[in-house]
Amino acid sequence: xxxxxxxxxxxxxxxxxxxxxxxxxxxxxxxxxxxxxxxxxxxxxxxxxxxxxxxxxxxxxxxxxxxxxxxxxxxxxxxxxxxxxxxxxxxxxxxxxxxxxxxxxxxxxxxxxxxxxxxxxxxxxxxxxxxxxxxxxxxxxxxxxxxxxxxxxxxxxxxxxxxxxxxxxxxxxxxxxxxxxxxxxxxxxxxxxxxxxxxxxxxxxxxxxxxxxxxxxxxxxxxxxxxxxxxxxxxxxxxxxxxxxxxxxxxxxxxxxxxxxxxxxxxxxxxxxxxxxxxxxxxxxxxxxxxxxxxxxxxxxxxxxxxxxxxxxxxxxxxxxxxxxxxxxxxxxxxxxxxxxxxxxxxxxxxxxxxxxxxxxxxxxxxxxxxxxxxxxxxxxxxxxxxxxxxxxxxxxxxxxxxxxxxxxxxxxxxxxxxxxxxxxxxxxxxxxxxxxxxxxxxxxxxxxxxxxxxxxxxxxxxxxxxxxxxxxxxxxxxxxxxxxxxxxxxxxxxxxxxxxxxxxxxxxxxxxxxxxxxxxxxxxxxxxxxxxxxxxxxxxxxxxxxxxxxxxxxxxxxxxxxxxxxxxxxxxxxxxxxxxxxxxxxxxxxxxxxxxxxxxxxxxxxxxxxxxxxxxxxxxxxxxxxxx
Length: 629
What we know:
CATH topology of the largest domain: BirA Bifunctional Protein, domain 2
Largest sheet: 8 strands, mixed
């Protein structure tokens, strides 16, 4: 997190609120925090209306405010004084925050310590005598009586007051007037509660300088072009249906080819590491999740199922690990059998909020490439190293290893009581993960306090083709579920010993990974993954027989190929193939029939060449092999 940049973003949020008030004097302000790529501020415009047509005038006012070199001046008051001041300002939403802070019913109330802080935006001007008097007035709390204690110039110099915990830049002179751009409007319920009034949220992008902002805007434009929801529909990869339900995508045949190849590739990587494939049902009794602890934590996000015949209550599984614990528990393992490795690409179900669902990247049916290893404490490093090897090979194939980094999430040493398991076991697990990270040359950062309560973990962060960061693969040590399910194996002394469980996911979920890959490759997949690798285009009906002969040769070599024998013109056939991002087009006319050749067009490189049938087959087979090395 860039703390300095976030302070600037916080300052720009205040500048935007001031600019909005200038353009809409009756507006009431709510809150305005910074975000990952800028900031937002919530407003109540009352009977007035705002649209994106107003962005230009608000931005113009913001730039003017920044040019005035306004100072941010902080002062603190009691709860009662804050309410008095906010009443004069007509800021009802902020009064409600004060009430919640005083009662302790607010997320940051523990940080306030009985005082409320405000920030003044003051343009001091050039008159030093008036400036000195203004500073005195601040110390004497003149802001409770705006008119009587101030002359006209001083009232003019006071530009804006906002209740805020800070921190802020000292002056708007520290802000770049070209480093922000208002992005969009959205509705937002006050305090995030649907029972409250709906406000207008204004989002803005903000960065250190114009160059960084321009780069971000370019990335967003690229992201718009690559939107997997648009490409998924155009390329016939997946479908959403209101009758089926939100967050429950359906795979078209073309999309299923991609999904199955990813799944098969994952299994190819795992079976070489002595994993065993397992299968578990999609639902289970509530008792399973009570034992695992998920019922207490995830019950509201789980789907309940009632058996009409059995009259029993079940839940669709939100995760696979409790089921895998049952598989391990049903065996008599000794130390010689350890580690035990299970692999299951299984669909789980979580009742995600409707407003958060998005294509394939946020769904309710989540197919995890799940794996659980049951091992001895002394085997953690070796097993983690094996998983890291799988992750490296997998993401190298998908061209994502450049610019990655790994979060080594460990305990917060100041709060050991938050974590399950003894200090000795934690030290071994954390040390094992770090040693594995070092030995495998991982670009890792230690992140204290980011561990799960049940154990430390490695989270892999990857950048896609346009620089967006995604958390995908994860390796997690777990001391919790083996204890809750009372799992054990026989050690060398014939005594019961509790295993450590390592949760690992390589792509996370097939749906989300597919969505990311559609955008990463902009719909033009590597040849081995492409749903349609070759399309044969005869220029006239007379050459269709030869086109189907070529198709048979390619099909016999497991190449995914089709023939466009329609009556469309050659140009339209080519456009149709390009629209579907077919990797290779083979144009067949009289010369190709005579020479038993094909005219090859490469969609990605736009290169064209003439090859014999056998040569073309050799070229694409070599390309497929090279892409998966």
